[in-house]
Design a protein that fits this description.
alpha+beta; two-stranded antiparallel ribbon
Length: 179
């Protein structure tokens, strides 16, 4: 008797499930795709729209839009984040590291081979790139207690690649130099 009760409950459940799926499929999902949306009507059946060139409400929308250019930072004695504006133009050292459009020092970390190889990249170098490479290599070797470090210079793209993760060290050094 228990087996027949289970069978009856199972068939009753299947019937309710099939009724539910039929009911679900019989109701179209409105506006879920272009096929179920309404067809385009004549233009006179749509409400009239007034196009206003510069309404006073646009100031609230313009406030949300991103600025067209990155604004120049305010000149302060010290910034809370530790950021420093660029000072030097490179005339005394013979080289120049230009800031990015967001006024940041262009020192990046590239990881390869699932994080096993880390390479620090200094970009946007102008002028005597070889003397900058010599100075950066000396700073890195001093921080590594005299251990040698491998570097690669790409004169055409103005980049210096230094083996290892030395982003913070080089970024601070370039900020101290005024770049």
């Amino acid at each position: 008797m228990a087996a027949s009760t289970k069978l009856m409950l199972g068939t009753g459940l299947c019937q309710k499930l099939s009724q539910f799926t039929r009911k679900l499929h019989s109701q179209p999902a409105l506006l879920s795709s272009f096929r179920s949306s309404r067809e385009v009507q004549e233009l006179d059946q749509y409400p009239d729209v007034e196009v206003v060139a510069n309404p006073p409400e646009w100031r609230f929308v313009e406030r949300l839009l991103p600025p067209a250019i990155v604004p120049q930072p305010e000149i302060k004695a010290e910034y809370p984040s530790g950021w420093r504006p660029q000072k030097e133009d490179g005339s005394t050292s013979g080289y120049y590291v230009a800031r990015t459009k967001n006024h940041m020092v262009p020192v990046y970390l590239h990881t390869r081979f699932r994080g096993q190889r880390r390479i620090t990249v200094v970009r946007r170098v102008q002028g005597d790139i070889w003397s900058l490479e010599k100075d950066l290599r000396a700073v890195v070797e001093q921080s590594r207690n005299g251990k040698l470090c491998a570097t690669r210079v790409n004169e055409l793209s103005g980049q210096i690649h230094i083996h290892g993760d030395h982003v913070d060290l080089l970024r601070d050094y370039l900020k101290e130099k005024g770049f």
